Amino acid sequence: MESVLHRIYIGSLGPVKYYEPRSVEFWKQNEQVNAILEKWAAKLGNEDQLDIFDEMLTVYIHMSDLEREEMFQRGFNLAAKLMSEVFFENTHEAK
After folding, report:
1. Would you kindly state where each structural domain of the chain is located, as residue ranges?
2. How far is CA 57 from CA 66, 80, 89, in A?
3. DSSP helix/strand/coil, 11
4. Rounded CA separation 65/10 (Å)
5. Mean pLDDT throughout 12-27?
6. Which of 3, 15, 28, 56 is at 20 to 30 A from 34, Cα to Cα?
7. pLDDT tens per residue across span 56-89
8. Predicted confidence band at 29 (pLDDT cuts at 50, 70, 90)?
9. Is the pTM of this model over 0.70?
10. Within 10 Å of residue 41's Cβ, how many Cβ atoms?
11. What is the mean pLDDT of the chain?
12. Are 53 and 44 in contact (CB under 8 A)?
């Protein structure tokens, strides 16, 4: 079995790349958002307005990706600090 570090390096293990929410509530709300967006786009009608709407959504999605990346990094850092603390305590108790 390949190590986790190797799998991350070759790109076969990407926590964000292969992640899909499992929550039923998430998917219900996703359907609601899509329905609202379709209604909104239909009301805009004008091609220029649709282009601006699409541009706004693209920027918002990019912002959301950046936010998730930062949250992942923060969570990983906290987990690493926790493991370091546990290891430090265990090595000092053993002496």
Report:
1. 22-94
2. 14, 34, 48
3. coil
4. 22
5. 82
6. 15
7. 999 999 999 899 889 888 988 999 999 898 888 7
8. very high
9. no
10. 14
11. 86
12. yes
In order of 29, 35, 64, 71, 91, the CA distances from 7 in angstroms are 33, 38, 26, 22, 29
- What does the block give as tokens for 39? 């209604």
Sign (positive or negative) of CA dihedral 36, 37, 39, 44: positive
The pairs formed by 72-79 with CB atoms below 8 angstroms and a separation of 24 or more are 72/15, 72/16
Amino acid making up residue 94 = A
Angstrom distance (rounded) from CA 17 to CA 73: 14
Other Cβ atoms within 10 Å of 53 Cβ, number: 15
11: pLDDT strictly greater than 90:
no
Residues 27 and 21 sit within 8 Å (Cβ to Cβ): yes
| C-alpha distances out from residue 62 to 2, 21, 59, Å | 32, 18, 5
What confidence score (pLDDT) does residue 28 get? 97
